[in-house]
Design a protein that fits this description.
The structure is a homodimer of 156-residue chains. Chain A is of the alpha+beta class. Chain A has helices at residues 3-15, 23-32, 44-52, 60-72, 114-126; strands spanning 76-79, 87-90, 98-102, 108-111, 129-142. Chain A has two domains: 1-92, Orthogonal Bundle (Arc Repressor Mutant, subunit A); 96-156, Dna Ligase, domain 1 (2-Layer Sandwich). In chain A, the strands form two sheets. Chain A has a three-stranded mixed beta sheet. Chain A has a two-stranded antiparallel sheet with strand order 1-2. The termini of chain A are far apart. Chain A binds a DNA duplex (25 and 25 nucleotides) through helix 2 and helix 4.
Chain lengths: 156, 156
DNA sequence: CTATATGCAAAACGTTTGCATCCCT
DNA sequence: AGGGATGCAAACGTTTTGCATATAG
């Protein structure tokens, strides 16, 4: 799903809920779904700064309100890993992935595992629930020197 | 591990790090590890109120600072599921469990699954990391009427 | 006795909200 | 034209911090 596809889907959601597709909402969505930075899991502040480059008048509130709508539309997922602030990731409806987080530099690697998904269903059932959602985050240290310039694990 | 065992372990950690076991720290730890409420995953505010019943002079800051130390000592784990506030759970070193959260009433059921733990190790390895930590939260709706008085799912 | 811990209140932080104005449809 | 959206700044709840005082070791 590319950025304009995301905007289209968002618009469909908005229309069906008496909301409007404004310039700001379209811009935020485009930037949020930019394929180059898709896996960056931006914070509100990070997204705000990137949006501000293209529209100097946006306010924080609009980012917060738009992300809330994107979540309702099933196009974004909040992720409260680690520290004290929320990160958001673009969500392709129907897909799902979990996270492997680098202990040294915070890099987030996404992955998917069928076997785990299956086990989760099974566990929920055994506990008397039907599974609606789940999140799994692994934290680890890299075994090989990391390629990222800001990673502390440069192969000491 | 009972409450006094937890205090003992905490004291060991404190001593080895030039910290002191104060009345407040011992009290907070005892209450946090109270076997009756072990699985309640209290917020700071909840813990604060329970501690205040036994020592009317404690301040919020002491709860925050003590929980931070308990985390360093490996005796507590912060859990930022769901809403906007952090819950804490007592941790028995060496043990680990994941969470099944009730969609209707927020009840947290703890569970452990060897198979999942094994798969997580495997996935981390495949991605080039050695696993340090992980968290997994399942969200689901109960299949049977819930027994909790405050659960919305009373068997409608 | 001295280093560390406490309680308080103020500050910091991320997030939400009220309101006058603006702008999609 | 009118219901919704925006930007701003103030309000909010949680967590952290500075500081004078108290206390464990």
């Amino acid at each position: 799903m590319d950025a304009s596809e995301a905007v289209k889907r968002f618009n469909e959601y908005l229309k069906s809920h008496q909301h409007k597709l404004t310039k700001q909402r379209a811009l935020i969505t485009e930037i949020f779904f930019d394929p180059d930075k898709r896996s960056e899991h931006p914070t509100v502040e990070e997204l705000y700064l990137r949006v501000k480059e293209r529209d100097r008048n946006v306010g924080h509130a609009t980012i917060y309100r738009t992300l809330k709508l994107l979540i309702e539309a099933g196009l974004a997922v909040p992720n409260r890993i680690g520290e004290g602030l929320t990160r958001y990731e673009p969500e392709i409806p129907g897909e799902h992935h979990d996270h492997m987080i680098c202990d040294r530099c915070g890099l987030i690697v996404e992955f998917e595992d069928e076997e785990i998904e299956r086990l989760q269903e099974e566990i929920a059932k055994k506990l008397g629930f039907s599974l609606l959602d789940h999140s799994m985050n692994l934290v680890g240290s890299p075994q090989e020197p990391c390629q990222r310039p800001d990673c502390l694990n440069q192969g000491s």
